[in-house]
Amino acid sequence: MATIGENIRRERKKKNITQKELGEKVGISNTYLSDMEIGRTNPSIKTLRKIAQGLDIHYIELLKDTE
Questions:
Q1: Contact between residue 15 and residue 56 where contact means Cβ atoms under 8 Å apart
Q2: Rounded distance between C-alpha atoms, residue 55 and residue 6, angstroms
Q3: In Å, what is the CA distance from 28 to each residue of 32, 35, 40, 45, 50?
Q4: Quick check: 66 pLDDT over 90?
Q5: Is pLDDT of 46 > 80?
Q6: I need a surface site. Which of 10, 22, 36, 52 has the fewest CB within 10 A?
Q7: Tell me, what's the pLDDT at 1?
Q8: For residue 67, how many other CB atoms are within 10 A of its CB?
Q9: What is the largest CA-CA distance in the chain?
Q10: Its domain of life (predicted)?
């Protein structure tokens, strides 16, 4: 099973987008995004939806197979 952060990282890397680029695109800091990707924090649903929109996917994709 994956974490939400691992799913974010996987999708971000598929799109060849850096944390900084995605953070700027969705209005969050790359530090916060990094914290999510390593599991230090979890995003709110609102933030998760912004991230998914920035990745051009449905936010449910980021929740699939999570713990």
A1: yes
A2: 14
A3: 7, 11, 16, 14, 9
A4: no
A5: yes
A6: 10
A7: 85
A8: 8
A9: 29
A10: Bacteria
* pLDDT tens track for 10-31: 999 999 999 999 999 999 999 9
Length of the chain: 67
Q: What is the CA radius of gyration of the chain?
A: 10
Spatial contact of 37 and 6, defined as CB atoms under 8 Å apart:
yes
CB 67 within 8 A of CB 29: no
What tokens does 21 get? 């680029």
Strand partners, 66: 2
Burial class (CB in 10 A: 0-12, 13-18, 19+), 5: buried
pLDDT tier for residue 47 given thresholds of 50, 70 and 90: very high
Q: With contact defined as beta carbons under 8 Å apart, do 38 and 5 qualify?
A: yes
